[in-house]
Write a structure and sequence with these properties.
177 residues; 8-stranded mixed sheet; 6 helices; transferase; Acyl_CoA_acyltransferase; acyltransferase activity, transferring groups other than amino-acyl groups; GNAT_dom; Acetyltransferase (GNAT) domain protein
C-alpha cells in the first residue's frame, strides 16, 4: 500500500476501507454483478461483463482528484465484501455523488452500508469540504431507501445527478446537521 492509499484508509469498528486497485478485481468481485438483486438495482452491473472491463473501470478511477473508490474489507479476515464510490467529488460546490454495493450477500441487511456511509461522509466533510452526499436509488429498492432514510438522507431533486430515469429516486444527506 503506498503512502497516498494509507492517507485515504478508514477504519470502522468492523471494516477497513481502502482505495481499490486492479489487484482487488477478482472473479469473486466480478461475480457480484451476476447476482439478480445487484443486476436489478445497480445501473453499471450489466456493463461488468468480464475481468478486463472491471479492471479498466477501477483503473479509470484511480488517482483522480474527483473520485474516491474504496473497497470494503472485513477487518478480521481482510475479505473484500463491497465497495463505496464517490464520483464526482466537487469540493468547490461542496457535494459528492455516492454509489455503494455490498457485493457479498451474506453481509447485506447487517448495517454495513450505514457504518461505511457514516465513516466516509465524515472523512469527506473533514478532508474535502463536502456538505452534501447525493445518491440515486431505484424506486423499487425499498430496503435501501429505508436504510438511507434512517441515515438522514431525504428525497430531493438536484442538478448534480443525471436523473433521466424515472425509476431512480435522488436522495441527499446534508452534512451540516
Amino acid at each position: 500500500m503506498n503512502s497516498e492509499s494509507k492517507i485515504f484508509t478508514i477504519y470502522t469498528s468492523r471494516f477497513i476501507l481502502r482505495l481499490l486497485t486492479e489487484v482487488d478485481v477478482t472473479e469473486k468481485y466480478l461475480s457480484w454483478f451476476k447476482n439478480l438483486e445487484t443486476k436489478k438495482y445497480v445501473v453499471t452491473a450489466s456493463e461488468m461483463l468480464g475481468l478486463e472491463k472491471l479492471k479498466d473501470y477501477v483503473r479509470k478511477r484511480t488517482n483522480r482528484n474527483d473520485v474516491l473508490f474504496w473497497g470494503i474489507f472485513e477487518k478480521e479476515t481482510n475479505v473484500h465484501i463491497g465497495n463505496v464510490k464517490y464520483e464526482p467529488i466537487d469540493s468547490e460546490k461542496g457535494f459528492a455523488v455516492m454509489g455503494i454495493l455490498i457485493g457479498d450477500v451474506s453481509y447485506r441487511g447487517k448495517g454495513v452500508s450505514g457504518e461505511v456511509i457514516k465513516a466516509t461522509s465524515s472523512f469527506l466533510k473533514e478532508n474535502k469540504n463536502i456538505k452534501q452526499i447525493i445518491l440515486g436509488v431505484h424506486r423499487q429498492n425499498h430496503m435501501a431507501i429505508k436504510a438511507y432514510g434512517k441515515l438522514g438522507f431525504r428525497n430531493q431533486d438536484t442538478n448534480f445527478i443525471n436523473n433521466s430515469d424515472s425509476n431512480v429516486l435522488t436522495m441527499v444527506l446534508s452534512l451540516n446537521d
